[in-house]
Design goal:
Helices cover about 30% and strands about 15% of the residues. It is of the alpha/beta class. This is Alpha/beta fold hydrolase.
């Protein structure tokens, strides 16, 4: 009867995986430079010029001319002859003008202008491909900048995918294409929040990079370093405000977001932990497997005694993985046995390093007053709300603020519900809005 469970548990291999939309075409827009306000300048009197009317006695004249009385002629339209040659000219004064003041009537009148603030130019939304390098591997991603005004620095969010080969859009093509991350980017753009999402190791244009020839050495810390570089890349964009950054993680990406929240600089303004991996990885996998075996038992595929035997075999296998021992799959159904065999293959190092992290412990390192949203869907079979209890308590003890835990009625692991099977469910959008628009 074990083969009857196969169809039920095969989906588990992507249990904590989350799927990302085709990258929008890049548009580059020119920004007009605001006009510069002008200001007139006052004319300055030469420091060696005598006050009052200017004379020609300071000029170097031939002796005969110097001994004769000097005459000045006024010109109706131009300067006097002396004004053309005198290095320190003074214009003639008006009859009603006090002596000693230069005549400015014949000069063009200048008006002092008050500086004014030019109307900022509206820059249209743009999407561009972006790259960054971590540990010698070039990572490819999509940066979306919403419509904004010239010079405006926007809030921005780093989007992190779940486990498995999940690309920048939240997809594992061709089998699974829910576009989870690209839809999150669209939702945040409507709130004028820029986003960066990227192809993590083993996906999209990034591929395995320097791990191509030795994939067994790829561990979870490598993914954390990659995400940290992505955060720094987003921080350094000319359109983003480095002091109002968010990290939005889905499933395993939420655990990565939690870890980055206490290490990156500057610290993020807020975290969105969407259907998070809130337990140690192997504990979560054991919980998921036992839940599916229990459902198969309810459907009559296993007897209660067989269920107890399988549950015990799962616990034994988990212990073997944690102590780096071979896994005995004798009492496991074939589908579950294949899963544990895969955990001992090239992905063994990743499994062990991910499982070494207890999510509630990481919450203690968060900066107090960090805004945190934690969601759990009532229809999420992979991350039940009960699995987030310890993490929720730890976040509260860390004195984080924000929406906290928000249950999502009828929402599954991919953030959909029955009436929105291909788009983000309304409760998801409402929860995000609570994070991005805090109440006074």
């Amino acid at each position: 009867m074990f083969h009857l469970l196969t169809a039920t548990v095969l989906a588990l291999t992507a249990a904590t995986a989350t799927p990302a939309t085709a990258t929008p075409a890049t548009t580059i827009s020119a920004t007009a430079t605001p006009p510069t306000a002008t200001r007139t300048q006052r004319t300055h009197i030469h420091p060696h010029q005598p006050k009052g009317r200017g004379t020609v006695s300071d000029m170097r004249l031939p002796p005969r001319e110097r001994d004769q009385p000097q005459q000045t002629r006024t010109s109706p339209t131009g300067p006097t002859p002396s004004a053309l040659t005198d290095p320190h000219p003074t214009t003639h004064s008006h009859p009603l003008q006090p002596k000693g003041r230069g005549e400015l009537r014949d000069q063009p009148q200048r008006t002092r202008t008050n500086p004014t603030t030019a109307t900022p130019t509206l820059v249209p939304a743009t999407t561009r491909e972006i790259t960054f390098t971590t540990d010698g591997t070039t990572t490819y991603g999509t940066l979306h900048i919403p419509e904004h005004h010239t010079g405006q620095r926007l809030r921005a969010a780093l989007l992190l995918p779940g486990s498995g080969p999940t690309d920048r859009n939240g997809n594992q093509p061709p089998a699974s294409t829910p576009n989870t991350l690209s839809q999150l980017a669209d939702a945040l753009a409507r709130d004028k929040i820029a986003t960066l999402r990227f192809d993590k190791y083993g996906t999209g244009r990034t591929g395995l990079g320097t791990y191509q020839t030795h994939p067994e050495t790829l561990d979870y810390p490598a993914f954390i370093r990659q995400a940290q570089t992505a955060y720094e890349t987003l921080r350094d964009q000319p359109e983003t405000n480095p002091h109002t950054l968010l990290i939005v993680g889905h499933s395993e990406g939420a655990l990565t977001a939690l870890l980055l929240g206490s290490t990156v600089h500057p610290r993020p303004e807020g975290l969105a932990l969407l259907q998070p991996q809130a337990l140690r990885l192997l504990d979560l996998i054991a919980l998921q497997l036992k839940s599916q075996v229990a459902e198969a038992t309810r459907q009559g595929h296993f007897t209660p005694e067989q269920q107890r035997t399988i549950d015990a075999a799962i616990d034994t296998a988990i212990t073997a993985l944690r102590t780096h021992q071979p896994v005995d799959t004798t009492d496991l159904p074939p589908a579950i046995a294949r899963l544990f065999e895969a955990f001992q293959g090239p992905s063994a190092r990743f499994i062990q390093t991910d499982d070494a992290i207890n999510p509630p412990d990481t919450a203690a390192a968060l900066r107090p007053e960090t805004r945190v949203l934690l969601t759990c869907g009532t229809n999420d079979a992979q991350i039940p709300c009960t699995t987030t209890n310890a993490l929720t308590t730890a976040l509260r003890q860390a004195q984080t603020t924000g929406p906290g835990r928000v249950p999502l009625p009828g929402v599954d692991h991919l953030l959909h519900d029955t009436t929105h099977p291909n788009t983000l469910a309304p409760p998801v959008l409402a929860a995000l809005h609570r994070l991005t628009h805090p109440r006074p």
